[in-house]
Amino acid sequence: MNDILDALLRALAFGTPLLLASLGAIVNERAGVVNLGVEGMMALGALAGFAVAYGGGMGGNLWLAVLAAMLVGAVAALLHAFVTITLRANQFVSGLSLTLLGLGLSGLLGKKFEGFPLFNQPPQWPFTVGAIVLAVVLGGVLQFTRVGLTLRSVGENPAAADVLGLNVGLVRYAAVAVGGALAGLAGAYLSLVYRPSWTDGMTAGLGWIAVALVIFVGWSPLRAVFGSVFFGLLYYLQFRLQGQSPVPTEVFSAMPYVLVIVVLGIAGLRGQQGAAPEALGQPYTRGER
Amino acid sequence: MKASTPSKKSLTLALALGAGVAAVASTLNPAQAQTGSAKLKACFVYVGPRGDIGWTYAHDQARQAAEKALPWLETKYVESVQEGQALPAIDRLVADKCQVIFTTSFGYMDDTLAAAKKYPNVIFAHAAGYKRAPNMATYMADFYQIYYLNGLVAGALTKSGKVGFVGTFPIPELKRHLSAFALGVKAANPKAVVDVKWLNSWFDPAKTREASEALLSQGDDVLSSAEDSATGVQTAAARKVPTFSHYNSMYKFSPDYVVAGHIAHWDKIYIDFLTKVHSGTYTAKNLANVDYWSLMNTGAVESGADAGVAVNPKWVPQLKAAKMTVAGKTVSVYDRLMALTADMKSPKPTFDPFMGPIKDRNGIVRVPAGKVASVAELNSMGWIAPGVVGAVADEPKK
Fold first, then answer.
1. Do domains B12-142+265-298 and B144-263+308-389 have the same CATH topology?
2. Are B206 and A101 within 8 A, CB to CB?
3. Smallest Cβ distance to A201: which of B13, B49, B390?
4. Residues paired with residue B163 on neighbouring β-strands, in sequence order
5. pLDDT by residue for chain B (398 residues), tens digit each?
6. Which residues pair with B358 in a beta bridge?
7. Searching chain A, which residue's CA lies closest to the CA of residue B14?
8. CB contact (8 A) between residue A204 and residue B196
9. Cα–Cα nearest to B138, from B169, B97, B86, B102
10. Within its chain, how far is the Cα of A79 from the centroid?
11. How far apart are CA A127 and CA B228, in angstroms?
């Protein structure tokens, strides 16, 4: 019993940044914009959060640190928004570049913060509980409110939304910024709560798991809660069961990616694109179809 | 992980930009350009980021120390180079006129050997491996003695009788350290065991966090981590469990729970090696037998929670209270620790953790009575000492 509780708590701890980042990605993808820059935005957020919280060794304001991480994430995302929405560049290429940029820049600017512990760290539960509440609220907003409807129609059929008088570009800009802010928040969780310290490359692929998670949960915020806990559980179990299970633990660590491929495969067999928004990944140009 | 490749590329880009700026700056400053001409250029290939606080950090601190100590030395590095991808990095460094190239991870061994054949006039030195060539030396600041000492500490402090060990890759180096650690634990506490979990990664803080948590939830109450970040120490501290510094002082990450540990001083090796290259003692023709197998008596490694602090004073009373049997006599673990530390630091140590008779955990004799495991045996170690619980890859059956 104790083991199960332990595993669940670890799944929540590891799943929190996955949930935060994937909720952000769900928002921008529901508006039709893919952002593969999650890993880079997370790294930038982690650095910004740590830098402010560290405060030159004197200890800074923790809530200010969280805010800074979200702001930096949002600004990085706006770069992606400008390139893909205004300049109509390929979203996948721009997102990958953002990951490169975010990892490189955070590594470069973060040199002077390496090797220091953070003693004034915030507790974990506001992040975990907050992320779950946010998922529920976001699920409701997408399903039942005018804002949600606006967001979805821009992601499903931007031309129709345009005809209805919605500002497609503006909605997409806002959605991408929210996505970046949440990725930044996920980064802050890593550097303030989970580690808590800063090292170059400390996101270690978590952003990519979050990207995979979005597809796995079919763009649903509520399912993302279960998805992130499930991925967290798999991650923890690869170590907990190591040496104690006949199944090689590599199976557990590969599972998130395997599951995503399986889900996409099933969707493909059914002859549909899964639950992906219709216009996902396509730049919108007025008057074109 | 997918992410490390982009990270590396962008860092390379940033470094290239930095190098460009530096080149412009040096042409603008003729005085600097002149002194640069007669310099020896030594370059380093790192497996992790410089700031990992573990292995790569220790090498980079040593690089900087060497540059400070040797006015004729010029250095350069590439970081986060994946194992198996060292050759392109070396090609670039050779093109950049590096005369001496240090490759600082076990997994670079074959790439370094291939590079040594490809560039016969460049001097190579590979850390943690055992293959050499006329222009390729090997070096290692090894911790197996200190792992034994840390094992004594862990054995004395565990109440549950279960000690956790987070391993990186199950290669000979890690098996040697794990086994030495387990032999120490057993010496201080014959009933205790060492639980091991493998990461299959040199640097991955998230994996370290969860592997450590898994060990703690199994009931382990002392934790040792071989991963190159302070995450193992931080996790142990958060759960109020004694732990050890790893490659560098990690004391500041937890002044309460870092009890002992090991600290590397790679600069001892780098300065000596580079000085001999500079004076012409070492050339690209006579390195086939040059191996710096540096233990505690060379000063290249130190046993301690912090530089100059062998044991965290907060834990000394507990170690003094813990008793163990040595050659039929009862002594305190603390006294044994101090006696062995003094012996290992002396020019000719009389004690070695791998002094026979030693059987592996399957009951097969690995070091006969009256013998000490040779450096070659230690470098190719596949077996695991008794007391280790958990799967270990490539463990010989016979």
1. yes
2. no
3. B49
4. B194
5. 333 444 444 444 444 444 444 444 433 443 333 344 579 999 999 999 888 888 999 999 999 999 999 999 999 999 999 998 999 999 999 999 999 999 999 999 999 999 999 999 999 999 999 999 999 999 999 999 999 999 999 999 999 999 999 999 999 999 999 999 999 999 999 999 999 999 998 889 999 999 999 999 999 999 999 998 999 999 999 999 999 999 999 999 999 999 999 999 999 999 999 999 999 999 999 999 999 999 999 999 999 999 999 999 999 999 999 999 999 999 999 999 999 999 999 999 999 999 999 999 999 999 999 999 999 999 999 999 999 999 999 999 87
6. B367
7. A104
8. no
9. B102
10. 17
11. 27
Burial (0-12, 13-18, 19+ Cβ within 10 Å), A78: middle
Q: Rg of chain A's alpha carbons, rounded to an integer?
A: 19
Distance from CA of B187 to the nearest CA of A (A): 25
- Residue B169, sorted as left (phi over 0), alpha (psi -120 to 50) or beta, turns out to be beta
Q: Do residues B243 and B237 make contact, with C-beta atoms less than 8 angstroms apart?
A: yes
In terms of DSSP bridges, do strands B301-303 and B329-332 run parallel, antiparallel, or are they unpaired?
unpaired
Indicate the angle between helix axes A206-216 and A2-30, nearest 10 degrees: 80
Q: Which of B210, B231, B250, B389 to mutate to test the interface with A (most CBs of A within 10 A)?
A: B210
> How close does chain B come to A126, measured CA to CA in Å?
18
Residue-wise pLDDT for A7-38, tens only, equals 999 999 999 999 999 999 999 999 999 999 99
**Tokens 């200010």 sit on residue:** A64
Two structure tokens written together for B88: 């392109």
Give me the half-sphere count of Cα atoms (radius 13 Å) on the Cβ side of residue B320. 7
- List the beta bridge partners of residue B247: B263
In total, chain B counts a number of residues equal to: 398
CB contact under 8 A, B390 and A196: no
DSSP structural state of residue A193: I
Domain boundaries, chain B: 12-142+265-298, 144-263+308-389
- Inter-chain touch A240–B214, beta carbons under 8 Å: yes
The nearest CA of chain B is from the CA of A113 a distance in Å of 9
Scanning every residue of chain A, which has its alpha carbon at the shortest distance from the alpha carbon of B57? A115
Strands (E), chain B: 40-45, 73-78, 100-103, 123-127, 136-141, 162-167, 193-198, 223-225, 243-247, 258-264, 291-294, 301-303, 323-326, 329-332, 358-359, 365-367, 388-389
Residues in chain A closer than 8 A to B6 (CB atoms): 39-40, 96, 99-100, 103
Instruction: Report the complex ipTM.
Output: 0.90
Using the structure block, give the residue that is written with the tokens 């400390």: A202
A201: left (phi over 0), alpha (psi -120 to 50) or beta: left
Nearest-neighbour CA in chain A from B137: distance (Å):
30
Q: What is the pLDDT of residue A270?
A: 72
Burial B352-379 (b: 16+ CB within 10 A, else e): bbbeeebebbeeeebbeeeeebeeebbb
- CA B132, distance to chain mean position in Å, is 19
In this complex, do B51 and A199 lie within 8 Å of one another by their Cβ atoms?
yes
Rg from Cα positions in chain B: 22
- How many residues does this entry show for chain A? 289
For B308, the token pair is 């100059």
Indicate the class that CATH gives domain B12-142+265-298: alpha beta
Residues linked to residue B123 through DSSP beta bridges, in sequence order:
B100
Distance CA B231, CA A70 (A): 24
- Superfamily per CATH, domain B144-263+308-389: Response regulator (3.40.50.2300)
